[in-house]
Structure formats: C-alpha cells, structure tokens
Amino acid sequence: MRDWTDQQVERMVGNILRIGVTLAALVVLVGGATYLVQHAADAPHYGVFSGEKSNLRTLSGIIASARELRSLGIVQVGLLLLIATPVARVAFSLFAFLRKRDWAYVAVTAIVLGVLVYSVR
Amino acid sequence: MPPNVLEFSLLVWLGSFAAGFLGALTGLGGGVVITPLLTIVLGVDIRYAIGASLVSVIATSSGAAAAYVREGYSNIRIGMFLEVATTFGALAGAFLATWVSTAAIAVVFGVVLIYSAYLSNRPRPDPAPDEPPDRLATALRMNGTYPTAAGPQAYHVRHVPAGFSLMFGAGVLSGLLGIGSGAVKVLAMDRIMRIPFKVSTTTSNFMIGVTAAAGTGVYLRRGYIDPGLAMPIVLGVLPGALAGSRMLIGARIRVLRLIFSIVVGILGFEMIYKGLTGRL
After folding, report:
1. Is residue A1 part of a domain?
2. How many beta carbons lie within 10 A of that of residue B9, not counting itself?
3. How many residue pairs bridge chain A and chain B with CB atoms within 8 Å of each other?
4. Which residues, 6 or more positions from A45, have their beta carbon under 8 angstroms from its beta carbon?
5. What is the pLDDT of residues B126-178, one digit of tens each?
6. Closest chain A residue to B224, measured at CA
7. Among A12, B228, B272, B277, which is 20 to 30 Å from B139 by CA?
8. Residue closest to B177 by CA, chosen among B276, B275, B247
9. Which structural domain, as residue segments, surrounds residue A10?
C-alpha cells in the first residue's frame, strides 16, 4: 500500500469539508425556501423558549419528518449534514493515521471521534 | 407592527451576512455577534440564539478550513491533539448551559465579548525567545513547517500542557455560549504554545468545527436548535464569511477591526446589563 503524504491527506480533508458544507447548505436552502413559501405571513415565535418538538430533535424524528417532505424537517436534515461534516473529517483522519500506522494519533483521533459520536448519537 | 416570518428571516439573513463578513475580515469570528444580535436587537430567547449560532459556527469553520487546509498552514496533528481538550470541554459546556440560568449565561457572554474585543487590538508580543521545544510536542511530532516567500519555515511547539488546559476552557465557552472561541484558541496556540500566528489562526479555524459539533449534538437533543431560525443564519453567515476571507488578502483592516471590536465591546456591556437586570 502506497503511503499518503501529509499534503495528500490535507487535500482530501479539504474536499470532505467543502462537499459536506455545500451539500448541507443546499439542503437547508431547499427546505428553507419551502418553509418561507408556506409560512411567509406567520408570526415568528422565537421570543419565548418552548423547545423543539421531538420530531425535530431526534435523529429518527427528523428523518421521518423529512421523508414526509415537511419543510422544517428538510432544513433539520441539512443541519444534521452540517454537524456530520466535521465528524466525517475526524473519521477520515482516523483512517489516514491508521494507514500510516501512526498509533499515537490513531488513539488521539479515536478519542475525539468517540466524544463526537457520543454527543451526536 | 411586528415582522412576519418572511420579514424576520430576511432581517436575520442580512444581519448574519454582515456578521460573517466582518467576523472573517477582522478575525474576530462571526459567531460571536450572532447571539447578541438575535437577543438584544431581535428579541430572540437566548437559548434559541445560542443553538442557531453554534450551527452557523460549524458552517463557517468548515467552509474556511476547506480553503486554508490546502495552503499548508494548518497543522493537523496539533489540531487533532488539542481537539481532545476542546471536544470534552464543549460537551461539559453544553451540559452546563442546560443547568445555568439564562441571566448567568448572558453575563458570561458579555465578559467574553469584551475580552475578545480587547484581545484583538492588543499588539502581538515579540517573536518567542529561543526556548527548547516541549518534549511532549517532539514525542507527538507536532513541530512542523509553514510556507513563506523564502521557502518552508520550521517552527517548534512549546508549553503543550498549559495550551491543552486552556483549550479545555475554550471548549467549555464554545459549548456554553454557542461560539467558536477562536480568540481563546489563538491565545493558547499563539501566545502560550508559541506557534506562528498564521499556523495558529488556520489550525484554530480547523478545530472550531469539531468543537462546535460536539456541543451541537447536546443542543439538538434538548430542542434548542430551531430550523426556522438556524436557516437564515447558516445561509447568511456562510457566504458572508467566504466574501470576508476573500477580501482579507491585502486589505487594510486595522481601522475596521477597531470599529468592529468597539461594536463587540458595546454588545458585551449590553449583554451584561440585560443579564443582570433580567431583561433577556
């Protein structure tokens, strides 16, 4: 297996970040535009905190909501893609350090990935 | 007449674009003014504001890091090592945010704003004296090179334990306040670990997304992240920050940075005042 140079890894990391952010922004844009068309004249409700309903705060709820093509569910999928972008970057770094047999950084990266997965799960 | 959803979203979009633009141009970061803007100016509950701001921080950090990482300034090893501290810190901060009163959060936020404003205008100290590199940094192969006009320039990393501890603090602030904590991260890397400024700022940018993602998971499950509010913010900050970072090259920014940090400082006092008088 040919070794990757640090520069190659950095270029791939850059691509992951760019693709992730672009995709997330597009999904947010589609969901957001739909939401604005449907609810333009409503009154905003952000002055009082009530918390999101469960269909917009759990992974399964968000996906179900988006599959019913609800606009806010689609926006929330875009935000999930955004959250997943740095997670994917760390996962890829773990893979790259594994390939290089750089065990100290395999351990460091695995800890970071563990914290992220615990948080986002 | 209060604005409807369309008008409100447009206002938020404009404010977020300006915040992203000025934040990237001056190096203060856009996330730091989103929450004061939403709470003080638009009357949004601080919990919604922090959730939406944190999401936008992931967007700008990842977008900017994608551009910087190819230039060869950022140091992935330093970043990954310090992310251990910032992600644990962000988790702690996000859990703390659900315990502490919103008034206390507003006051802490105000202090951080004022400190960031002060820090960004302080002259940088002279180049580091020739201390021996940190043993831990050498063992973890953090020392690196960065491109200059005269070819690659080598640098050594110092005071790793102190930098690591401060990074935990940066993570807590990020999770508690929904900001990138770029100012504290650069402080840890530039001033304490003595990493060259350009390497510090780009590596910090790189770490901010991961730190923010760690906090966002907690906020999402607690219902702090409202898609209707986050949408115009993400879509505003992102192109704003991209435009700002494009202009950074060669722009004379000292006056602009001074003006922007005065605004940030005023917002800081406003946050403290409103927090103390319970009007937030």
Report:
1. no
2. 24
3. 199
4. none
5. 555 666 778 888 888 888 888 888 888 888 898 999 999 999 999 999 999 99
6. A51
7. A12
8. B275
9. 6-120
